[in-house]
Design brief:
6% strand, 5-stranded parallel sheet, 21 helices, binds flavin-adenine dinucleotide, single chain, 5 strands
Amino acid sequence: MNIVWLRRDLRLDDQPALAATAGRGTVVPVFVHAPEEEGEWAPGAAAQDWLGRSLAALADELTKRGSRLILRRGPSAKSLIELARESGAGAVFWNRLPEPAAAARDAAVEAELRAVGIEVQTFQAALLHEPDEPRTGQGGPYRVFTPYWRALERMGGPDEPLAEPAALPAPKRWPRSLKLGELGLKKRDGVDEHWQPGEAGARSRLAAFLEDALADYAEGRERPDRDGTSRLSPHLHWGEISARRLWHEVRRREDLSPRPGLTQGAEAYLRQLAWREFAHHLLAAYPATPTEPLRAQFARLEWQDDPGALAAWRAGRTGFPLVDAGMRQLAATGWMHNRVRMVAASLLVKDLLVPWTEGARWFWETLVDADLANNTLGWQWVAGCGADAAPFFRIFNPVLQGRKFDPAGDYVRRWLPELAGLTARWIHAPWEAPAAELTRAGVRLGENYPKPLVDRRAAQRRALAAYQRMKE
Ligand code: FAD
């Protein structure tokens, strides 16, 4: 009898822990809800909603195969030991979590299980490779993406994904389980409407992406007004599809194409997957970075304590349409396009001089794909304080970014209906529009849509001065 402890690997395909139980008797899959063990990085509201739906989807799939998903509450070690005693299991299998704090928790759980004679086997399943691979010539972690990417390429592709187990032998008597509702996971509007959490949802997203968007991904990925990206991030975060499977599906599709060789779209996509790897590589090497800048001097930057600005940013009421559209997309769907994440983050951190950690926390609470490694990398990249980050003095201009990447204004129109009547010429800078144009479009600045929260020129001067003082 074996227990498989599921966490952020909520799938049956390419599931090393589950696959390893083959030929070893019956299998009891369990999810232990233990947010207190995750401390300040326990899933936020949007992620909790996703998790609840993903667990329900996995339970359905297991039931279809004559198995079940057992739900328990933490502490994890105590719960697993109890479950092993109740079910007579002698071994617990799990896939390792790459984040340092989670890995430390798992090491403690492993020691407790072994101490009472329970066998433990663990596997790498979240990433393409182990988070501390590859190493530089000096044996350290990489801090710059391009050499890291080249080193990844030199390592060759990841292992082939594993097939779903042919059978999941069930115990004669199932141990007791909590009901999903008893875990107390938060609900949030929008998740159900815009997403299909679970393995089947991940597979259909992937199929649609390969068919409709991969070929054009190198350019399409920059356009928030198009469906140009895979939107697999929450599925990847919860392990509903493995990065390995994704990698091989993209490669296989390329091999089948009439012109073999990696197309620009596929190359660009694999690169983005490598950014996810890089984020984990950095977090493994610098575990304090979710709250502390990798470049220590940034701890001295004179941030502003500006609750009003932070509240306006969160609510999507800064008066900069691309940013506000992104923040409304986030509120409505739990996801925001990458280009807009960068622009919205830049406005908060540089124009408003609000600490990047405040933005990262808000994203953590509201993103369905909230991921400690990717979120930390994203925010430190924008703030200029991370590895291979955008220089602090390079400040995104939300108007130019809007005109370039949402040229017809469709993205803004979709998420800010109050601006929908404006033409492409004015939609990214309504304060520059002639009064007659605003009247025609029904826009009353300061009433149904805010005036810009800051004068960007003055704000940039302030940001650069703060940066200069920090350097001195
Ligand atoms: P695609 O373009 O289809 O990319 C495929 C996959 O590659 C993604 O699902 C993701 O896993 C990975 N990926 C793509 N871009 C990046 C990137 N820049 N960094 C790391 N991995 C990447 N991503 C998260 O998954 N969780 C977060 O909490 C998160 N927070 C972010 C915060 C900021 C400020 C910024 C600028 C970026 C953040 N990202 C985060 C990265 C990126 O925005 C999302 O991964 C991407 O938008 C997800 O959409 P997609 O699945 O359609 O991406």
